[in-house]
Amino acid sequence: MVVTRGFHGRRQDAASQLPPGQYLTHDFPVLSAGPTPRLDLDRWAFVIRSEAGVEHRWNWREVTALPSETPTVDLHCVTRWSKLRTTWRGVSLDVLLEAVDTAADYALVRSYGGYTTNLPLEDMLDGQAWLVYEYEGEPLEPAHGGPARLLVPHLYLWKSAKWVQGIDLLFEDEPGFWETLGYHEYGDPWREQRYQGD
Ligand SMILES: Nc1nc2c(c(=O)[nH]1)N[C@H]1C(S)=C(S)[C@@H](COP(=O)(O)O)O[C@H]1N2
Ligand SMILES: [Mo]
Q1: pLDDT at residue 16, rounded to an integer
Q2: Residue 21: which region, alpha, beta or left (left: phi > 0; alpha: psi -120 to 50)?
């Protein structure tokens, strides 16, 4: 085998893909603020509620029948681990929000079990967020948010709500679980926005 000197391939040096203050991990830590809810797919639904109170609901069959994508993305947790090149399957939020008439600027994401997190609505558009239900070709396991979680990889991973139940669209920003406890309202890992005021 001939290795061409100076050929670095398509893969970048891992260090250059790590936001400031992060380290690389190869396992997949589980971080949950409470117990893993047991969810029955027959009763599961994903609901987007507009600022006018109009609800758009998809059951499991409907969600998994929508066109899906297989994004490969890097994950950055505020507890400083990063995991590179994870592959998921899910529905782009662009597809789900297409059906929704809204003038809202903010989203409050709600999970089964009560977890919440907030982000600007525009951060869920233009191919930046997915409702994912497979991880590395397998059904998403409950510990990591199965049957379905939000995936918003350009923000710290606490924004990627596990066991997601729906999204409330709001005219005014409302802090979620960690945001109320002092974490940053936006959470850009490249700007190291870990805590309020960062
Ligand atoms: N519903 C819910 N979603 C959640 C959490 C949680 O406690 N409950 N933890 C968040 C945090 S802080 C992180 S770092 C990631 C962890 O995802 P993982 O357990 O799949 O690594 O999920 C996020 N989503
Ligand atoms: Mo986290």
Answers
A1: 78
A2: left
How many angstroms separate the CA atoms of 189 and 152, rounded?
A: 12
Q: Low-confidence residues of the chain, pLDDT below 50?
A: 1, 3-10
Q: What residues does 91 pair with on adjacent strands?
A: 131
**Given the CA of residue 143, which atom of ligand 1 is nearest to it?**
19
Q: Give the architecture (CATH level 2) of 42-191.
A: Alpha-Beta Complex (3.90)
**Is the Cβ atom of 135 under 6 angstroms away from ligand 1?**
no
In angstroms, the CA 182 to CA 180 distance is 6
Structure tokens, 100 = 């929704």
Whether the CB of 181 sits within 6 Å of ligand 1: no
For residue 163, which atom of ligand 1 is closest to its CA?
A: 1
User: Please, what is the end-to-end C-alpha distance for the chain in angstroms?
Assistant: 50
